[in-house]
Amino acid sequence: MTIKLTRRAALGSAAALPFAAAATPVLAATNETKANSTIAKSFQLGDFTVTSLLDGSLPRDGAKEIFGGGASDEEFAKVSADNFIPADQAQFFFTPTLVNTGSELVLFDTGLGQGGIQAALADAGVTADQIDVVVLTHMHPDHIGGMTTNDAPTFTNARFVTASPEYDFWAAQDAGNRVGDLVAAKVTPQAEKMTFLGDGGEVASGITAVAAYGHTPGHTVYHLESNGQRLVLTADLANHYVWSFAHPEWEVRFDMDKAAATASRRKVLGMLAADKVPMIGFHMPFPAAGFVETRGDGFRFVPVSYQMMG
Questions:
Q1: Is it the case that residue 59 has pLDDT exceeding 50?
Q2: Are 213 and 260 in contact (CB under 8 A)?
Q3: Which of 45, 114, 176, 220 is exposed most, by the fewest CB atoms within 10 A?
Q4: Which residues make beta-bridge pairs with 97?
Q5: Judging by beta carbons within 10 Å of its beta carbon (0-12, 13-18, 19+), is residue 98 exposed, middle or buried?
Q6: What is the count of structural domains for the chain?
Q7: Average pLDDT, whole number, for the chain?
Q8: Is the pLDDT of residue 28 over 80?
Q9: 284 in a domain, yes or no?
């Protein structure tokens, strides 16, 4: 039986997302590609060069407690076994994305702040002072850690972009809140260079903000379009390439509003599957890019192979 997931079925309402119908992109590496290493991989999206940057990777125990809220032990173990991964451990990846629009270098998220972002940028032939725009999808520590290096701004010539509800929430936290304190130290001092966007706001021509709240109060994904080819940077919409896709309703420890996060996952993943739009997810296995297909009542992440990388 073939199940056709219509846009209406996937979203309930398509008006919330700026995903106009277009041909499925064929993403291929070209001579303009900037990097092809173990920590930086580039491909073309129309006139954009998009580069995944591996900031770091580490294993973590207690996978079910992190990614399987609401699942039984048996359910979680079966999904894990069906996908050839252990049920007790997860491998975390941290993958900012660099987009060269032809006129600006736009960096999405800054990583852990342990030097990985500078190393990955170097493999792409870019230094931190060349970045024109830094977009913060949200303000968890692994996304804002690289905003400063040795207490000094890392991206000295950049302007900054984030969602207004995200900044407002963390800036209002009392001292002693771990994330709020980090925002105060790394983000607030650069707020005068920051633009605050709402849903549908434009970072640059062809780069649009899409509200996907739940993981944090202002968590935002970004829709890229160049010459009819599209890609969505999904940030932390889905934190694991198996569990969060197979069962979007399973609660993730890091999601602040569990119900809203589930609704955002289903909405955006449903659109990606229906329209065959590729994605890059911050915590997907490097190079973190792939497609989404429907599978039962959930989804499956289909990682890139040779068709996107050269």
A1: yes
A2: yes
A3: 176
A4: 52, 108
A5: buried
A6: 1
A7: 89
A8: no
A9: yes
Residue 99 within any structural domain of the chain: yes
How far from the centroid of its chain's Cα atoms is residue 71's Cα? 24
Residue 233 CA to residue 97 CA, distance in Å, equals 8
The answer to whether the CB of 14 falls within 8 A of the CB of 7 is yes
At 214, which amino acid appears? G
The three-class DSSP label of residue 36 is strand
Q: Cis ω on the peptide bond leading into residue 217 (within 30° of 0)?
A: no
Q: Which amino acid is it at 156?
A: T
Instruction: Encode pLDDT of 290-307 as tens digits.
Output: 999 999 999 999 998 755
The pair of structure tokens assigned to 124 is: 């792409």
Bigger pLDDT: 190 vs 2? 190
**Burial (CB count within 10 angstroms: exposed 0-12, middle 13-18, buried 19+), residue 101:** buried
Domain span including residue 153: 7-303
The CATH number of residue 161's host domain is: 3.60.15.10
Q: Cα-atom radius of gyration of the chain, to the nearest Å?
A: 18
Six token digits for residue 240: 């694991």
Beta-bridge partner residues of 298: 295
Q: Does 2 reside within a domain?
A: no
Tens of pLDDT along 233-261?
999 999 999 999 999 999 999 999 999 99
